[in-house]
Fold each of these.
Amino acid sequence: MQIPGHWPKLELRKQARQINMRISVNMMRIRVSGPLYVRENELIQFALEHAEWINKTLNRIAKKSQPELPEEASKPFLFLGGKWIPFEIITHASNSVLWDKQKEQIIAKIPFNPNETPLAELKTSLYQYFARTIIPREFREFAQRNGLSYERVFIRSQKTKWGTCSSKKNLSFNYRLIKCPVEIRYYLYAHEAAHLFHLNHSKSFWNKVLEFDSEYREHEAWLKKNESFLFLAD
């Protein structure tokens, strides 16, 4: 059974009170649910049998969810921590970046010529720099406060996922997470930390998320509402 490569994450669920198999779709995941007695390969097969409907739904959602980007998106601004911050590029071999939070300005001394490098490329490099600098430190502090153990944190550029947690306790976060307000980033830390205990999305998993983030429902709703903008505004 070959799952189409352009599909977002396929999420399989078995629920005690459910009688029939059902599918729900958004740009981040395709959820297939069914009764407890249904095997996972049957859920996958059910999704593949409805591939045409899933593809049409994904296309409709994509067209509907294209956000209107603000003026800053096409100028030397970064959307960091939930707000737009101007940046200046100085071509220099030192490869250093200063974020002056009092002046709300970023000065980047990097080996790029801003006149010869596309603005989108410069922005992506800066987003990834801040993600690699800030996210692992924040998660380490989060883990220490909650007495968690894990192996490594990776910063990646997933097309649809915000984060993952492997059975070997390696975690990865999408670099675009650095664009989110700090409370949204911590919701993602809570979500992936819960996978250290439960590699599924069971009731026990969500109870663990709740332990880490008492307002996770509001934070999850904010992320779903803004995810199209966060992925497009590079």
Note: Helices lie at 40-49, 51-64, 119-145, 182-194, 203-212, 216-232.
Amino acid sequence: MPEDPTLERPDDPKDTAKLKAVLVLVASIAFVVTPFLTQPFTGFDPSQMPVPVDDPPIQPAGWAFAIWGVIYLWLLASAGFGLFKRDTDAGWDAVRWPLFVSVAIGASWIGIALTAPAMATFLIWVMLGGALLALAAAPAKDRAWLALPLGLYAGWLTAASCVALATVVAGYGIASVQVSGWACLLLALLIAVTATQRLRVPTYPLAVAWALSGIVAANALSAPAFAGVALGGVLGMVWLALKVLRPAS
């Protein structure tokens, strides 16, 4: 009796791609729903760290966090489109593992941040790494469905990761809030400029510019020098976004 050839056939790559597309959608739904199931997050609780840090200068004004509404909806739409329209597409498939890691961690991040700032800081940097890897792998096609939402997400995470790092460094007495704020502001700008030039996705620098605008607003009166450097970053990020959008000659 002849053997069934399917018994020796490896797993169908298309089935694996579909499974990853499902996982990304499930993780994205969890990511979007979680904020409605936890306490609002407005920054690390100062009482959770040895040195209380209230309103660090690198923390953007509250209104800047409204960008999450756009990020959540766009990522959710992207995941749905990816599953139902590009489930076996090789370009989309290359993005899925790093994106899944990032948003899966993001689904539990607020709960961790409310109780464990140091762990939350480590995890948000992992989220940023996954987002940047996904963005680097995003194909040129379907930009409005994949690269552009990923750019907005990764851009905001670039700023948020540096805010978290500055706060924890000051909160654990490693450096003063001023030193950690300046160092992490410059770190955010360095990462943002480098990533923008390499990835060339305009929503990435625009998201960074939005976060920096919130820093300008929060420091315009209390720390004008800090606000001035952040404002320079805003102008630089907008200029880089326009440069990315400009067609090559």
Note: The two ends are 66 Å apart (CA to CA).
